[in-house]
Amino acid sequence: MERTFLMLKPDAVQRGLIGEIISWFEKKGFQLVAMKFLQLTPEMAAEHYAEHGGKPFYPGLVAFITAGPVVAMCWEGQDVITVAREMMGATNPAKALPGTIRGTYAVDTGRNVIHGSDSPAAAERELAIYFRPEDFFNWDRSLAPWFTE
Ligand code: DAT
Ligand code: MG
């Protein structure tokens, strides 16, 4: 089973959308395996967004992502990396389709409520920033056979 890193950004937390957005992934059929409520330090933000260092939006991005607590999560499931990105919608919420999370809850690229890993390598790298091995729970969900063959 594939795992991905998802994070509810400070805007989602401030707007009271934690439960609602987590519900999308529960209802879809994915399984939560780790979760942490924390505020990123500038050092963590720099590590998380290393690929964007030097870009014009980078200082604003780091200021935003460190501005308040976030919900960091690991989710597991069939093709969860790709499917979660599809569920999130385009980076620019103005371009995100209705029926996606960003298309439903956001209007501004700099306030797009959720982060999700974009590849298996990114998922592995990002999960290691936020979680230790003992933070992951392998638990049997009784409904599992009703979600996947
Ligand atoms: P995504 O979050 O969809 O993976 P990304 O990795 O290209 O998108 O960028 C990371 C975050 O940086 C993105 O969620 C919001 C911010 N960002 C990206 N491009 C931006 C831009 N042109 N202006 C402002 N913020 C931007
Ligand atoms: Mg990205």
Q: Portion of residues in helices?
A: 40-55%
Residue fraction in strands:
15-25%
Tally of separate helices:
8
> How many domains?
1
How far is the N terminus from the C terminus?
Answer: 13 Å
Residue stretches low in confidence (pLDDT < 50, at least 5 long) are none
Average residue-wise pLDDT: 98
Order of strands side by side in the largest beta sheet?
A: 2-3-1-4
Give the CATH H-level superfamily.
Nucleoside diphosphate kinase-like domain
What is the molecular shape?
globular
CATH architecture, by name, is 2-Layer Sandwich
**Annotated CATH topology:** Alpha-Beta Plaits
What's the helix and strand layout?
Elements: E1 2-8, H1 10-14, H2 18-28, E2 31-38, H3 42-48, H4 58-65, E3 70-77, H5 80-88, H6 101-105, E4 114-116, H7 120-130, H8 144-147
Antiparallel strand pairs: 1-3, 1-4, 2-3
The structure holds 2'-deoxyadenosine-5'-diphosphate and magnesium ion.
